[in-house]
Amino acid sequence: MLTQTIKDLRGLRLGPMAACLEEWIDQPANMHRTSLECVEAMVAAQIQAAADKRAQRFMHEADLPTSICMADVRPSASRGLSVRTFSDLCSCEWIRRGHSLVITGPSGAGKTYVASALGREARLAELGVKYWRVPDLWAAFEEEADRAQRRKLSEQLIRVHLLILDDFAFQKATTSQGHELLKIIDGRHRHHRSTMVVSPHHIKDWDDDFDDATTADGLCSRLIHKTEFIDLKPPPRKTAA
Known about the structure:
The protein folds into two domains: 2-61, no CATH class; 80-231, 3-Layer(aba) Sandwich (Rossmann fold), CATH 3.40.50. The protein contains ten helices and five strands; from the N terminus they run αααααβαβααβαβαβ. The chain has helices spanning 2-11, 15-26, 35-61, 83-90, 93-96, 111-124, 134-143, 147-159, 175-190, 213-223; strands spanning 100-104, 129-133, 162-166, 194-199, 227-231.
């Protein structure tokens, strides 16, 4: 009978529940446990599988290694990421409250890794996340000739729970690029959406990264509101034995 139940679950595309039931049956210790506990375990397995699938889809769409995860991030006050701050970020409560995050630091500090791991964690928590490298975002807008499609993309970026902008201020922005970015950040600010900015340059130096200084000021004024700042430092080099 249970064999048929397992087949039926797989037929309903509930593979994780079927696998959990199979494993449950194979464990002698479960003989004295209740059927309710079994059902709870099966449901938990299905929920976890769905969360993992969302996270994997996010990493694939962002063209990031699927192996990235929070468990591999090593917080350290000496690197600018304290254990307490790391724990708070992992909870994703800052996203639910509409707060933002700015991560700066030199090449090799691990900025993209930390940002990607946080994005993956947010997807596991059933929050909408979009990841864009800013140069790629500008290219996407420039390639899209249809104004309606450009507006649609902007609206998607404004509404999503968390927008990750990597390589921010990596190259100097033209006036039109800066205005497009300001429109998105302003919309997110008004809708209390979280933005994560990842940049090799400290926020005080962003004026030099935009042709229009007024745009840079507008971006800074919106991104410093309810924002956590992390100046990440590279991990210490291993010394030879």
